[in-house]
Design goal:
Two copies of one chain form a homodimer. Chain A is elongated. With about 190 residues, chain A is an all-alpha fold. Chain A folds into two domains: about 10-55, Arc Repressor Mutant, subunit A, CATH 1.10.10; about 60-185, Tetracycline Repressor, domain 2 (Orthogonal Bundle). The relative contact order of chain A is 0.12. Chain A has helices at about 10-25, 30-35, 40-45, 60-70, 80-95, 95-110, 110-135, 140-160, 170-185. The interface of A and B includes residues 119, 143, 159 and 183 of A.
Chain lengths: ~190, ~190
């Protein structure tokens, strides 16, 4: 790098989110994001391949879930181990609820980002599945446990960032546990 | 149309699937698909905006699920109604297992098609959610029931098209019911 850039990556991510929210994704270029973040366009492309990737870099949610599943107690059922993975993923976001809420709104309103978010979900399911298999869980059970846990994570995430949830201020992990219990009751 | 083209759309869909399987998605153009199907490229673009959409046109899975949820008995629980929607979706594929199996393999191996397939899943969840809301189911319950039903559908689908399932020859609808029971037991 030509000069020291403290947290250039984080600044570009915040800048991108602001610009996408203010003027829309289509109306924002990589150059706009770089300018708002106070870096050159060249620096932008050293960190990200394109503007779509900016909001998806640097949060290895699938790895956190994978490691969380492996770290669950030995006696945990596949479902419990999968939920432990979801809570490990939730921990990455716990302190950043406002950012996560704004990001969720921007993603929901922007088809290319929604597609990318779905890929991220699929990667979370795959990582959870792999970790359950490593624990010795059979293929069909691991598949179902991973899919349903990520379903609980996604529904729980939307509840956690929902503005109407402001008063309650439950932690994301608590909401995941409550959502899993609701799903159990529902079925 | 310049001349009568019996089932041109179906022929193009089969041609696309064959070509994607034989030489890969990237190596297949809209013109190749038209040629194999015996139609002009102009005809291709009258039916589809691009080659990515060919395998996703003409199967209104989300509508079938929506209508299936609404057609469930009045006393059905939200979970039961959502599963009725999944079985209505399954009915669209029941007679086309070989096509569905080949299509699933091609989609899984082709990132742009995988992304598109995830969007289709999201549309199925949204349609199921809307139908449950129309039935008077509350927002959080409808959300969870729709997400978990589509999870059961997707896991059930992979089991149904799995080559190792050939001997059993269970119907897709039966596999959905069995998968839902397994999920219940798992939780």
């Amino acid at each position: 790098m030509g000069r020291w850039e403290p947290d250039a990556r984080g600044r570009m991510q915040r800048a991108a989110l602001e610009l996408f929210a203010e003027r829309g994704y289509e109306q924002t270029s990589a150059g706009d994001i770089a300018e708002r973040a106070g870096v050159t366009e060249r620096t932008f492309f050293r960190h990200f391949p394109d503007k779509r990737e900016v909001l998806f870099a640097g949060t290895p949610m699938d790895e956190a879930m994978h490691d969380g599943v492996l770290a669950a107690p030995e006696h945990a059922t596949p479902h419990e181990a999968a939920l432990a993975g979801m809570c490990a993923g939730a921990a990455l976001l716990e302190e950043r609820r406002d950012y996560a809420a704004l990001r969720a709104r921007v993603v929901e309103a922007t088809p290319p980002l929604r597609e990318r978010e779905l890929l991220k979900s699929a990667a979370m399911t795959a990582a959870t599945y792999r970790a359950l298999r490593t624990r010795g869980v059979s293929e069909p059970v691991a598949d179902l446990a991973a899919h349903s846990a990520v379903t609980v994570f996604r529904v729980g995430f939307l509840r956690w960032v929902d503005a109407r949830n402001d008063a309650a201020q439950q932690s994301f992990a608590d909401i995941i546990t409550a959502t899993a219990a609701e799903l159990r009751a529902l079925m």
